Amino acid sequence: MDDELHERVREVIASVPAGSVATYGDIASVSGAPSPRLVGRILGEDGQDLPWHRILRADGTPAPHLVHEQLERLRAEGVLADGQRVDLRKYRWQRDPDDDAGPGALF
Questions:
Q1: CA distances (Å), origin 92, targets 6, 24, 37, 46, 107
Q2: Cα separation, 46 vs 61, whole angstroms
Q3: DSSP letter (8 states) at residue 60
Q4: Quick one: pLDDT at residue 74?
Q5: Is residue 106 pLDDT above 90, yes or no?
Q6: Residues 6+ apart with CB under 8 A from 107
Q7: Which residues are CB-contacts of 64 (< 8 A; sequence separation ≥ 6)?
Q8: pTM of the model
Q9: Is residue 2 exposed (0-12), middle (13-18) or buried (19+ Cβ within 10 Å)?
Q10: Which domains are delineated in the chain?
């Protein structure tokens, strides 16, 4: 992975606003990353200063080892879960179409 892609993934994650969530796949699509797993790897290695808690798995659930802290942080921002699942239809981030989304932008 090159530094440019790494920074692009970080920028997209940083742009997810409070009160919204995105999936690893959403971030991969918008940033042009080849896979959602790469997004997870970047977050795990270099995401402490990012709103990592706003990034969920494709089914709207947090990673098992982060579930309690992640849901607590999301709840503080007004994102409520049903059990351990966030309703993506309600809380999923919708990127402003006027933004320069760059490679792979879908929304």
A1: 23, 12, 19, 23, 11
A2: 21
A3: S
A4: 98
A5: no
A6: 26, 30, 94, 95, 97
A7: none
A8: 0.88
A9: exposed
A10: 1-91 (1.10.10.10)
Name, in order, each residue with C-beta under 8 angstroms of 90's C-beta and a sequence gap of 6 or more: none
Angle between helices 3-14 and 36-46 (to 10 degrees): 80
Report residue 90 as tokens. Answer: 């309600």
Q: Which two tokens stand for residue 48?
A: 């402490």
* Tokens matching residue 89: 């239809």
> How many angstroms separate the Cα of 25 from the Cα of each of 61, 67, 74, 75?
13, 18, 19, 22
97 contacts: CB under 8 Å, gap ≥ 6: 107
Per-residue pLDDT tens digits for 48-95: 999 999 999 999 999 899 999 999 999 999 999 999 999 999 999 988
Residue 62: partners with Cβ closer than 8 Å, 6 or more residues away? 53, 56, 70, 71, 84
Please tell me whether residue 21 adopts helix, strand or coil conformation: strand
